[in-house]
Amino acid sequence: MSARTISLPRELAWPLRRDFQTSSICWGAFIVLLSCYCMVYQVVVDDVPANFAASFTYVFKNWGVWLISTPVIFATLRKYSTKWHDRAVEFVALVAVVVFISTAVPVAIDLLTHARDAATSLMIFLPRYVAVVGVVYLVWHVFLRERRVATETVDVSPSPAPEPPATLLVSKGADQCLIQINRIEYVSAAGNYVEIVERGHRYLMRATLKQVEDLLPATDFIRIHRSHLVRRDEIERIKSQPSGNGTVQLRGGQLLPMSKKHKQALHRYRPAE
Q: Which residues lie within the region annotated Disordered (predicted)?
């Protein structure tokens, strides 16, 4: 049977790894220091030779379970830190279960080694472990809690619209040239291109009519048909048909179709009655 490796997502694996690292460092240092204290106690008070192995075993029996319990509480704090009001009961219940299981470990060891009875062992470890939860919270709050970056005051006033370009790059046969936008008379769709008429000269530009419309000043040009965009100043006469459609005659004499849909846009330029 081949072994299968289970990989956690990075956003989940990194906090768990950091939780275990912090727990190992803090509790490892605490257990070593307390073992050293026990050795000093053996020499000074009990007047016996110092025994690090015995001291370490005694301390680890009492506190070693928190090497595992602490990361669990860290994960619980991270999960419920933003939901205190909604899920406080669930959070307290989970922490209580962790404390109960942690307390059961040294109590069971005392029963198996006949060191103490269950009631005495419980009275010794339960108050200590409840206090440990407060210390674990302080460690998480100082070192592991994700800080919320204060929102800086940002000016949300709309930025001024960019100035429309003064020229367009167009094609004339095999050549390209720049034409002045203020000289354009009208623009018509022509397949994948648009045809731009400027003072009687015709040019092509690879773009859609909508793209060109966005480049032109909205105050100067108006759409009269899905395929035609004209300069308002060039409009000389509008002829309507019974169907609602019509034609637009430009000052240069060109006649362009006008659709009923876009005819309504011309009403904006009628004087108020």
A: 240-273
Q: Measuring CA to CA, which residue among 53, 64, 56 is closest to residue 34?
A: 56
Task: State which CATH number among 3.20.20.10, 2.40.50.1020, 3.30.1050.10, 3.40.50.970 fits the domain covering 167-269.
Answer: 2.40.50.1020
More reliable by pLDDT, 85 or 206? 206
CA angle 251-253-257, nearest 5°? 100
Strands (E), the chain: 167-172, 175-180, 184-190, 193-198, 201-205, 221-225, 228-231, 235-240, 246-250, 255-258
Residue spans in the chain of domains classed CATH 2.40.50.1020: 167-269
Question: In this structure, are residues 238 and 266 in contact, taking their beta carbons and an 8 Å threshold?
Answer: yes
Q: Which amino acid is at 90?
A: E
